[in-house]
Please model this.
Amino acid sequence: MEFHKKPSTFVGHVKIKVTNLEQSLKFYQEIIGFDILERTSLTAKLTTDGKTSILSLEQPENVVPKQGRTTGLYHFALLLPKKSDLANIVVHLTNKGIRFGSSDHLVSEALYLHDPDGNEIEIYIDRDPSEWNWNGEEVAMAVDPLDFETLLKNVVPENHWKGIPEKTVMGHIHLHVSELTKTEEFYVKGLGFDVVNRYGGQALFLSTEKYHHHIGVNTWNGVGAPQPSENSVGMEFYTLIYPNEEAVKETIGNLQNIGAPVTEEDGRYITYDPSGNRIELAV
Model:
């Protein structure tokens, strides 16, 4: 969790859109294990520690189902504190009959599943950073099979499922974008991230303070992919947490220097990447 506090800049919160709030709350409480921090008739803020929200849900008016081949959310990723937490969630999901995928990324071990609307969720643990392999400025990552036999040796049998651990954080976000050249300029020169892995000519992984990635972007929905409609299922926005006010002001200046939009709404600074993904800048 050292990469999700000062001096790193990291993803602190994600807001997604759903078709039926009650249905989604049932899933996020019973399957993922969140608690509700606040809610209205059409929105809910979810929490793991009872104090802060790392995920929120909204049911827009005239909502339409998730649209394919567009920009926007690929997945948001929940980072767990310990290997036993991931092992216990494997048992929990299996007991609930939930289908999920998995992968060993060398830097991390991950599960993948979808909420009732098709929003993808990654649940993962990091390997110790001493085990990550760097070649200059790029970290080695892969999509290898997950070793469930070894992972499940970490199950704590007496730990009955009590929900996702309270120290869970929003580990990273991965987005569909329409192209990579302007996107790289926006995230590097504008937001201040470093490229730490290039996946062919189709994806970039970006971070601060030598994390394996706080943000991923890809063109797997097609170069030139359009934005989804405003009332479509998917991501509403994500929040970047900067170390201090000075860093936010510097970032705003950098964004303006490259011609990126920056607005202020109710004391929050808002920008959009070149593919229309909305980002809120916070401390």
Q: What stands out?
A: The mean pLDDT is 97. The domain at 10-282 is CATH 3.10.180.10 (2,3-Dihydroxybiphenyl 1,2-Dioxygenase; domain 1).
